[in-house]
Amino acid sequence: MTDIGTLPGGSWSAALALNGDGIVVGQSSTGGGQVHAFLWTEGRMTDLGTLGGSSSSAAAINGDGQIVGESPVRSGEMHAFLWHEGRMTDLGTLGGSWSSAAAVSDSGHVVGQSVNRSGFAQAFIWTESRMTGLGTLGGSWSSAAAVNEKGHVAGESPTRSGRTRAFLWADGRMMDLGTLPGGHWSAATGINGEGQVVGIADTGSGDVHLFVWEDGRMIDLGPQTGGQ
Fold first, then answer.
1. CA 11 from centroid of its chain's CA atoms
2. pLDDT of the chain along its 228 residues, tens only?
3. In the prediction, which pLDDT does 74 show?
4. What are phi and psi of 85, to 5 degrees?
5. Roughly how many angstroms between the first and final C-alpha of the chain, as a whole number?
6. How far apart, in whole angstroms, are the C-alpha atoms of residue 22 and residue 208?
7. Burial class of residue 134 (count of CB atoms within 10 Å of its CB; 0-12, 13-18, 19+)
8. CB contact set of 18 (below 8 Å; sequence gap of 6+)
């Protein structure tokens, strides 16, 4: 176990993600009493700065060193950001007051959640300087958790009946991935390049199980024994 330290003058830090090259991202307190996103590599921690507000937090990093997270802008609104080669880019919102990025693919697709003009939180994908809302499964909100190189997105959204379901979004369409036998809800947490989706779901008996979804079928991987 390696202690990666803190930003100068800080008293704590938290590592939240790393890529295949061993580059770590997260957040750390600073000597000025703020909390900033950081990048750690080869024994050195770099402060990623903010979008103009007083704080930032990194959530994910891809193989090219692109980092995503959230930071308040000068008005105090929280916005998703993409950091690359020393520059932090404000990804904007879907028209509402905040957004937050959760994942970034090696091809540069960013996904997360943002409030839209109607005041509802909705999953988004950002690519080529444009943020697009992914819609819902019929309910009032959706949230994206992961994205693959093809821009296919996995996350969760309630249906019209209010049941939260894992979804796969591809080619402009959001698909309900269903539940495990006897279950009522599911949530996707990851997706690979082949379109296989993983997540968690209930079984109707109060237990939470892990699943993998592929070829239109949700496969039970057994009880969840730790965190997501």
1. 26
2. 999 999 999 999 999 999 999 999 999 999 999 999 999 999 999 999 999 999 999 999 999 999 999 999 988 899 999 999 999 999 999 999 999 999 999 999 999 999 999 999 999 999 989 999 999 999 999 999 999 999 999 999 999 999 999 999 999 999 999 999 999 999 999 999 999 999 999 998 889 999 999 999 999 999 987 544
3. 85
4. 50, 45
5. 22
6. 31
7. buried
8. 24, 25, 61
- Flag whether the pTM goes above 0.85: yes
At residue 228, the pLDDT reads 46
Mark 5-17 as b/e (b = at least 16 C-beta within 10 Å).
ebbeebeebeebb
Would you state the structure tokens that stand for residue 83, as one six-digit string? 């950091």
How many CB atoms lie under 10 A from the CB of residue 33? 10
Contact (CB, 8 A) for 145 and 164: no
Strand order through the sheet with 130-133: 95-104, 110-116, 121-127, 130-133
Find, among 77, 78, 52, 58, the residue nearest to 13 by Cα: 58
Q: Dihedral through CA 45, CA 49, CA 55, CA 58, nearest 10? A: -60
Whether residue 112 contacts residue 152, with contact meaning beta carbons closer than 8 Å, is answered with: no
Round to whole Å and give the CA distance between 91 and 110: 9
Query: Residue 204: which residues within 8 A CB-CB, separation 6 or more?
Result: 181, 182, 183, 184
CA angle 198, 57, 101 (to 5 degrees): 45
Q: Which two tokens stand for residue 183?
A: 């279950």
Write the CA distances from 138 to 94, 122, 142, integer angstroms. Answer: 18, 12, 9
